[in-house]
Amino acid sequence: MAARYTDSEIQQLLTERKPLPEEYRKKLKLREKRGHREAELSISGAAGTEFRLIARQNSLNILDFSIILAVCPAGSNQLFRVRRHNGKSHEHTNQIEQNTFYDFHIHMATERYQELGTREDAFAEVTDRFGDYETALRCLVEDCGFEVPPNPQIDLFDEVVV
Description:
Layout: H1 7-15, E1 18-19, H2 24-27, E2 31-33, E3 36-44, E4 50-58, E5 65-71, E6 80-86, E7 92-94, E8 99-101, E9 105-108, H3 111-116, E10 123-126, H4 133-143, E11 146-147
Parallel strand pairs: 1-11
Antiparallel strand pairs: 2-3, 3-4, 4-5, 5-6, 6-9, 7-8, 9-10
C-alpha cells in the first residue's frame, strides 16, 4: 500500500534538516544508464527520515532532466516523491486546475492530488528559478532543507555534471 501524507506532513519532510555526506559529489556524479545518465544518494534526515535524492538527465537532450527528493516510508518499498524539478522537455497538465504548459517546472506532493488517486507529485508549477540541470539541483538543495558540508573550498556543483 502506498504511503500518504498530509500537506502539513509534506511541509515537515521538506524542512527536515538533511545533512549531505562529505562524499556527496562522487555519489551525485551522473553515470550512463540506457539512454540517460543517473545518480542516486541516500540521506538520513535529522529526525531519522530516510530520503533519496535521485537525478536523471537524458543523454541526448540536456533539457530533459528530473531531480527528485523522495522519502522512503517505513514499512513500504515504494518511494514517495516530495519534490521533483523537471526540465523543459515535455508538456505538463495539472488535472485539477486543467492548465497546460511547456516550460521548466517544479512538481510538488499535495494532499489534493493524492486524494484524486494520481501520483502524489502530479501537481506542478512553472518556474524561472532554473534553466538547466545544475541550477535545478541547486534550487532543490536550497528549497528542501539540505545542509552542505562546511568546506568553503568546495562548491556543491563542482563535479556533479559529467
